[in-house]
Amino acid sequence: MQRLYALLICFVSMLWCTFCLAQDIRDYVEIAAPSAQIDIAVLDTSPFKLAGDDQVDYLISDRQYIHLPGQRESYFRLATRPKTISAVEQEANVALTFDPAFERVIIHRIDVLRDGARREMLDLSKMDIFRAETERDRLIFNGTLQISYPLPDVRPGDIIDFAYSIVGTNPALGDHFSISAPHRFDVPVRFMRNALISGSDTEVHINGHNGAPLPDIQETGATRRHVWIQEDVAGRKSENNRPPRDYFHPMTQVSTFGSWRDLGRHFAPVYAVPASLPQELKDIAASIRSSQPSKQEQARAALDYVQTEIRYLGIELGAGGYVPRQPASVLRNRFGDCKDMVVLLNSLLGLLDIQADPLLVSLSERGAVKNSLPSHRVFDHVISHVQINGRSYFLDPTTGPQLGDLDNLQQGAFDYGVVIADDSSGMISAKPGQPAFYEIYRDTFRTSQDTDEVTFENVSTYVQGSADRMLDRIQTRGLETIETDFLHYFQDRFDGLEQAEAISYTVDTQRAELTITSSYHIPNGWKRDEEDPDVRYLSIWPYDFLSSLPESAQGARQSDYAIDQFRRVKHELKLHIDDDWEVWASSNNKINDAFRFDVEQTYYIRVLSQTLSYVSRSDRIEADDFVHVMAELEDIKDSYGVYITQDDDFFSDLSEEDFERLALAYLIALALISLCGAYLRRNVDASWRKEQIFYPVSVFKFLLLNIVTLGIYYLFWAYKNWHWLHETGRHNSKPLLYALFAPITNFWLFRKFTREAVPGYAGFRKLAVPLAILLIVANAISFTSPASDAANRIVVWITFFSLIMPLPAVMQVLQLNRSNGKHVQLNSRLTLPVWGLVLIFLPLFILYVIGSFV
Fold first, then answer.
1. Which of 372, 447, 710, 726 is 20 to 30 Å from 689 by CA-CA measure?
2. CA distance 716 to 685
3. How far apart, in whole angstroms, are the C-alpha atoms of residue 288 and residue 352?
4. Which tens digits make up the pLDDT trace of 359-395?
């Protein structure tokens, strides 16, 4: 069908082009002086310093519009001086377009100035005329003609002075008109003028944007002039990718429509449903009424009929650009443009007693039309505004067949539109509800511990308009082509990927959803580290999601940056791992005026899931926020996806439980070795034991050994204190037994610290019992197994705090021995056995720290 349309376009274009070339240009163009109302600017040919190194000097830009009773003219004059050969190629081809149905052209001058001498180049016999048809790729033919004249013998430094007028206006507009007056370009201009000459009793409305200057208003009898004259206007390079109606340059709009209501009422007569409709249409309505019980189902059936039975083709010659054809003509031809198809649909809905009005909207500017002065120029499309049981539907019969019932199909989301009706309410909101997401991608990966192979399944769900477009691709190109497209797409992203099963798809016609399922395997999904082959890694990225984000751009901007306001994408990555991993659950979001981004990562029963979503909140990123928002986008693109590594050594084959058992066994072995060593060296201080009070040791040595041994040194310190009590006859106890149960026996030990004849520091007497209680509670908490990561971190911190908690007791013993410095120094020596103890415990301490905080 597309090939047939292409042949039709070519055939019609050739016919029309041949017809136009056969016409005498004098049928459309004449040579004459400008109308008396036109003010002729004086050309200044001196060097234009403001242009600097620009390739072209723009000396005159003059636009004057005449809107008087019986007289409609648009006068244009452009004088340029190309300064390079490439600029000559651009400027030395005079061209203009017009609609021969209601416009004619008057050329006033085509002169080339060189060294002060003016050469008249105006020669109709050397001009070509042909049909432009710039929109034929959109199946729109408006009959526009273009005149082209390549000027001979133009050299760098010559001045090209070209002036012409287009006379006439589209009869569909009646007495109305609207113009746009620019007040600055990307390049500097020496003399710039915009002027409107209208009747003094003509009501015009003016709206300036982005600092536009006010006009000079001149009254002369029955004529009023609005004139904007500017000299030596500096250029300002406009930025690309600007959103609709972003007035980067100052701009003034002028219109005779006082309100959007006036605009809607002006076009109401030509869009009215005819009183007499063809019997064929009545029969269609009767068939729909008998087969569809509800109004929603009837409206849906009427829309489907127009979409499937009437093909889109716009023959918009003359007034046809604004005036729709009658339903009988559209039915007979079986084609029409948006106006024709809307009137046909509304006629059919009227026969079904369903209220429907045409709605003027803009495909290019969408919601930005609200900021415009009321004018017919801001609209380029029309749809049907249908109301059923107080609910509005915005139906576009030109979109082609659609999926979904009336509540789920893709409606025309244009933000705002103007109702065409005798009682038009003017501009209304045209914002139908959107689904949560238009595209939902689910990628599931499964790994193997024995091989580097990874299996991959992609489930892509398309909703509403996305589903319509994908279904059209499948039907026009074939499922085999789509399968190949998917395969090549994933092969570009995963090295060596191969297809595992044939692609398949399902369609939910009521919910307007289409789901495609494809599966693959990646023989070398795990990659090997070049330096260490035992280490392998797997990286998975949400490619579909990332491709949906706005394009990156660097640097600050002076104007807003356009983005797609209808992007709603969700992407879920699932990785099935055949081993247990420690993966923390996490979530994050970024919310700004342009978009909302959310990501959530979970790990449950060997399945790592990462879900990302992006929802547009606007059609633009505002200039003031551009740098910040772009930084957030870059962070999203760089930070998300799944990257895991695995080491195929001895420890990588251990389960988490086995590794914990091995670490515990290592700790017990170290503790036994340490305690045995301590027991063998228990009498090192025998020669001075009775001269000291308890077992004094420096704070540094105590903290170093107690922290590195994860609390085991405290048992030795407690043992030495109980042993001193036993040796001096102060307590008949078994020191080793009391030391092993230190969390409980601390109550008695600390109390004995306070009862020595030699005073310690005063505060310890009140601190002894609370300190013993804190130590027993901290030890109890250290052996708990929290259910959440947050609670686990609290337990880790309490455990570390318990290692320094005995410090007040250590300081109390030191205070008791303040006159015994020699013996304190002997006990505090960092001997080789002490450093050996530190070295054998240090690896375990480091692993504990990494496991607790990383």
1. 710
2. 14
3. 8
4. 999 988 888 888 899 998 899 899 999 999 999 999 9
